[in-house]
Amino acid sequence: MAKSAEMRFQEPGLTVMDTTSTGRPDAFKGNSELCFSFGIIADIQYADLADGYDFWGSRRRYYRHSLHLLQSAVDEWNKEGTQLEFVLQLGDIIDGFNAQHNISESALRRVMNEFKKLSVPVHHTWGNHELYNFTRDYLMQSELNSKCLEDQHFLGSGAWGQVSPGDTAAEHYYAYHFSPVPKFRFILLDSYDLSILGRDKSTQKYRDSLKLLKEKNPNENLNSPTGLPEPQFVAFNGGFSQAQLDWLNEVLTFCDTNQEKVVVVGHIPVHPGSTESTCLAWNYKDALSVIHSHQCVVCFLAGHLHDGHYHLDSHGVHHLTLEGVVETPPQSHAFGTIYVYNDKLVLKGRGRIPDKVMYYTK
Length: 362
Description:
Blueprint (H helix, E strand, L loop, with lengths): L4 H4 L25 E8 L10 E2 L6 E2 L3 H14 L5 E6 L7 H4 L3 H12 L6 E3 L3 H6 L2 H5 L35 E6 L2 E5 L15 H13 L25 H16 L3 E5 L18 H9 L4 E6 L6 E4 L5 E4 L12 E8 L2 E8 L4 E4 L3
Helix pairs in contact: 2-4, 8-9
């Protein structure tokens, strides 16, 4: 199981900061210069339903109250001033129970109305709960498709495209990149590009995903990791197609050449040190192989594991998995702001999310 918050504070490489009365991290000594900041939040999983429990019936989920926590986060971000450039929503914006009660669209509308109160753009990633509620085609036409915020300038032969040659619209993956300021870039990945969730069963990707899942998971319940040598192969996880990995490699090649620092974003964590084994992307090793073959990546941001976690890997990449809003008690919070400096990322967390200083190591 995931380590407790107390244990996370003791991990090497984590530093708890003092903050000023304004809530911004205290001024750092030396030549470090604040470039910009952005908000992060994960696993809101709102539903207009009474509190419930997780898949195993052991973790309480505060479905209605998650909206109030989002409202509080929006209020705090709006007070942060001109340095806040955008907010990252790391997936699972509404809960899958909405689909069972036929209230998916109204739930999404209520959450999006809160995000619209922000004075900055919101970049959305997709998690398994988006795909419990909607098809991929629906999501591509919805406000959860924030690809309109992608950089429009040309990086290479296909580094801003999201559909590989021969793909139909039904086979697309949802991924894009953007640069809020010179020399910094963010890449949003589709963690459910390979998945049995949300895709039409007639598509090749659905058939390939189902075949792979059943080869790796012989259990009758495909959400059960019982007895699996690779516990990440459950239906609530997903993975990355080769086309998407090739696209990622091309963007990172450009970033290396341009001497940019890159933050990669996906709903599902890709390093075993940053999550439980049952919450890893199916082919996380393939994603790590691409990331580690480049010098530009400094951080990978994810949700999915509601306990949150952190790991600095052997290649100097910080893996930050954010605590989930839906399992946050009413008296607490679960969101943060990351301040980007020339030499580090500084997370100021609220409530369950601890502060962290993450220095660039390359």
